[in-house]
Amino acid sequence: DGGITQSPKYLFRKEGQNVTLSCEQNLNHDAMYWYRQDPGQGLRLIYYSQIVNDFQKGDIAEGYSVSREKKESFPLTVTSAQKNPTAFYLCASSIAAGGGYTFGSGTRLTVV
Amino acid sequence: AQSVTQLGSHVSVSEGALVLLRCNYSSSVPPYLFWYVQYPNQGLQLLLKYTTGATLVKGINGFEAEFKKSETSFHLTKPSAHMSDAAEYFCAGDNSGGSNYKLTFGKGTLLTVNP
After folding, report:
1. Can you give the three-state secondary structure of B25-77, one letter per residue?
2. Which of B34, B100, B105 is closest, CB to CB, to A43?
3. Most exposed of A51, A90, A100, B85 (fewest Cβ within 10 Å)?
4. Whether A86 contacts chain B with CB within 8 A
């Protein structure tokens, strides 16, 4: 079955370390997105990519980086510059306008 | 720019009661509209969507929503709440028309179902 996979489900890192969250989809979707979710704050867009080798900053891109070398993959790196990285991170993909998003199951990152 | 507003960050109902979650959008162009549900520590799952055609849209788990252009609303309803409906619900809209496709999400409404 087609879907979008995020790994790992839970991730623990020490303060000051960079960490990369994986997002893979086999839906043949062109666009992919990363959101951050904190309690009571809804979904906040970090980065998005409409096509391979191209991506745009979202509303809260500072302290994060992405790459889109393959259509299927859109990894997110949380760098040491991100002041408060502990959060739930969601990856999504979409095919076109009107189709909505398909979401992964999320990665909960805890920085200690 | 389009915005999506969900009225009420927390709604509490009794089991068997009507569920009504409110969503309004602001846009000069009727958008595509979506409702998603999120259970704890999970991703968002599509409940239903409105693109064109019939304004009353039926989704999964007995939910439905009606697109009302005159009221710029897309409220989500379910006639009888079940304990398993307890979750967070997000309304989203898109009127990008193609390129630079990106949804605008509401802040979410947490639904509590009391026995």
Report:
1. EECCCCCEEEEEEECCCCCEEEEEEECCCCCEEECHHHCEEEEEHHHCEEEEE
2. B105
3. A51
4. no
